[in-house]
Specification:
The protein is of the alpha/beta class. The chain contains three helices and seven strands, in the order E-E-H-E-E-E-H-E-H-E. It has a three-stranded parallel β-sheet, with helices on one face. A two-stranded antiparallel sheet has the order 1-2.
C-alpha cells in the first residue's frame, strides 16, 4: 500500500500503520481520528514528530508510546499537546 498499510486489530476496525514517520508528516492518511507515536522511530523521535504535527495544525489527539520513558519526556509530550503518554507494553 505504499506509504501506509491498513491493519485490523481484533474486530476494532481499520487503522493506518505508518511505516515511515517522515512521509507521514507530508501527507497523513485520510481522516485519522487519533495519532499514536512511538518515542523511538527510525530516523526521528516521536517527540519531534509530535512537535511537527502540532506546528502543522494537526489537532487530533496524539498518544505517545514508549518503552524507555522519563519524567522529562512525559512532561515535554504533554506540554506540546499529547493526549496521553503510555509505557509499553500497553494492554488495550
Amino acid at each position: 500500500m505504499g506509504r501506509y498499510e491498513l491493519v485490523t486489530a481484533a474486530g476494532r476496525g481499520a487503522y493506518a500503520l505508518l511505516t515511515n514517520p517522515m512521509q507521514a508528516l507530508d501527507q497523513q492518511p485520510p481522516g485519522p481520528r487519533q495519532v499514536w507515536l512511538d518515542a523511538r522511530m527510525p530516523g526521528i523521535s516521536g517527540l519531534t514528530v509530535l512537535d511537527m504535527l502540532r506546528a502543522q495544525g494537526v489537532d487530533q489527539p496524539i498518544v505517545m508510546l514508549t518503552g524507555h520513558g522519563t519524567v522529562e519526556m512525559c512532561r515535554r509530550a504533554f506540554k506540546v499537546g499529547a493526549a496521553e503518554f503510555l509505557e509499553k507494553p500497553v494492554n488495550c
